[in-house]
């Protein structure tokens, strides 16, 4: 007879060979449950921890590669890097097609032999130059002082906010333009200005009813992992 263990997520008796540990803590769960647990956390923008009660062990990337798609595995690597860099040290490439995350130390090391002037630095990934002070592609013909007082600066800031909001899946209220982030609950959003709309498509809710046919909720927003 094969040896079985009980998965403490689904409470099924599973063959030991199909049980998996995702961290150094050695707590084991069945493959489908662990896969779901890690994917849901990544969808919420966080690195999954071991689901065992009071265990703070984070998932091991190599273990997760056995059941995650290459795309999600890369997202996990990026999330782990994000959590390892202090907020004050984080630098993002301002080029939308890159948006690489770097630490200030990485940026300085990468630009030692190709320093431009003032805030000019080079992205470690795409190798394009950007301004570490203004957080925009490098403004070759202007100083940081002049650029930040130009009309271009406000336009670039708006574009960066929209790009960031798109990546984070934020939605903008069509009435007051306030940005909204759904952490949990259904897709029926009531903005602080009182305007009600669908988080999925932005369609207005009228008389407490949706005007679109989008799903009203998603399980992973209702039941938190």
From TrEMBL:
InterPro entries: E3_UB_ligase_RBR, IBR_dom, TRIAD_supradom, Znf_RING, Znf_RING/FYVE/PHD, Znf_RING_CS
RING-type domain boundaries: 3-218, 7-51, 173-216
Pfam families linked: IBR (PF01485)
Single GO molecular function: zinc ion binding
Needed cofactors: Zn(2+)
EC number: 2.3.2.31
Keyword field contains DNA repair: no
CDD domains on file: BRcat_RBR_unk, Rcat_RBR_unk
Keywords: Metal-binding, Repeat, Transferase, Ubl conjugation pathway, Zinc, Zinc-finger
Recorded catalytic activity of this chain's protein: [E2 ubiquitin-conjugating enzyme]-S-ubiquitinyl-L-cysteine + [acceptor protein]-L-lysine = [E2 ubiquitin-conjugating enzyme]-L-cysteine + [acceptor protein]-N(6)-ubiquitinyl-L-lysine
Top-rank taxon, per record: Eukaryota
Signal peptide feature range: none
Function: Might act as an E3 ubiquitin-protein ligase, or as part of E3 complex, which accepts ubiquitin from specific E2 ubiquitin-conjugating enzymes and then transfers it to substrates.
Name recorded for this polypeptide: RBR-type E3 ubiquitin transferase
Residues passing through the membrane, by range: none
Broad class of enzyme this protein falls into: transferase
Record lineage: Eukaryota, Viridiplantae, Streptophyta, Embryophyta, Tracheophyta
Natural source organism: Malus baccata (Siberian crab apple)
């Amino acid at each position: 007879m094969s040896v079985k263990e009980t998965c403490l997520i689904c409470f099924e008796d599973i063959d030991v060979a199909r049980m998996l540990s995702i961290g150094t803590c050695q707590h084991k769960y069945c493959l489908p449950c662990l896969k779901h647990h890690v994917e849901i956390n990544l969808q919420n923008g966080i690195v999954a921890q071991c689901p065992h009660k009071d265990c703070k062990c984070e998932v091991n990337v190599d273990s997760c590669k056995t059941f995650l798609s290459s795309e999600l595995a890369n997202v996990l690597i990026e999330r782990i890097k994000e959590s390892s860099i202090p907020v004050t040290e984080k630098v993002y490439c301002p080029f939308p097609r890159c948006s690489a995350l770097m630490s200030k130390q990485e940026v300085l090391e990468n630009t030692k032999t190709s320093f431009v002037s003032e805030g000019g630095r080079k992205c470690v990934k795409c190798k394009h130059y950007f301004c570490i002070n203004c957080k925009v592609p490098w403004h070759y013909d202007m100083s940081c002082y002049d650029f930040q007082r130009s009309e271009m600066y406000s336009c670039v800031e708006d574009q960066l906010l929209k790009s960031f909001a798109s990546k984070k899946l934020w939605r903008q209220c069509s009435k007051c333009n306030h940005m909204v982030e759904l952490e949990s609950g259904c897709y029926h959003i009531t903005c602080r200005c009182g305007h009600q709309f669908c988080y999925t498509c932005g369609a207005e809710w009228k008389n407490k009813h949706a005007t679109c046919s989008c799903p009203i909720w998603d399980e992973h927003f209702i039941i938190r992992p």
